[in-house]
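Researcher: Next entry in the queue.
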Amino acid sequence: MSSPGAAWRLPADPDAAKACCAAGYGTDAVALLLGPSYHPGGTELTRRLARTLGLGPGSRVLDVASGQGTTALLLAREFGCTVTGIDLGTRQVEQATAAAASEGLDRLVRFTVADAEDLPFEDASFDAVVCECAFCTFPDKAHAAAEFARVLTPGGWVGITDVTVHGGRLPEPLSGMAAWIACIADARSRQDYAQLLSAAGLAVERTEDHSGAISRMLEVIEARLAVLAMTAPGTLAAAGIGPASVQPYTRSVRAEIDAGTIGYALITARKPSP
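Model: Structure for this entry, 274 residues:
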């Protein structure tokens, strides 16, 4: 395993990085560009993850970095799971809580502000932990993985979907704080993620390549940006974004996707039974 962070620019202040990510994903700009689903593969990949983990009625699930609640609500609505979602962003937790109430799912889903690297739950509290497009943003991934393992029941599952990066250092535009918030700057290879989970005592069962999902998401962002630039330039300006600021970044990401450097993966791991 390559040493964590060896080829990436880690933030000098991890707490500041986490706060910046939480604030970034609570902005109107992100909602404008990404729409209802904030991760590649959208709800279809979430369903695949849930089926792979064998989730169903009665499954107690922790959704780490739950954002506006899209994954947690889907797991409750379609699979009957009881879900606790955590996020560092107060605004996101409030939005997710309101969405659960509006769908009548608040009996199955609750959201709270918490840190993935310091989970406020007892040992063996959950049957599954899911984390979509967020593990890569945690400054201390090894500690987060250990926390996932701690709160799982023996035989419980971890399932992550996340951005992957292969082949060393990313170019300058993709190594700063904006790229960190966009889940790229400290993304790792599938092998590195698997080894982080293994080091936490979890047995990796499956790794899948879903790199096409990140290409499709980039296409959606570019299309939404083009439409908004024509139909609602004032809305873009009010959100502090525009083609001139976003297009150089998306071009850099596209080049790395085409080169096979940036991809997307689904990984599952199980906590051994005694």
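Model: The beta strands are 60-64, 82-87, 109-113, 126-132, 152-165, 203-209, 262-270.
Researcher: Noted, moving on.
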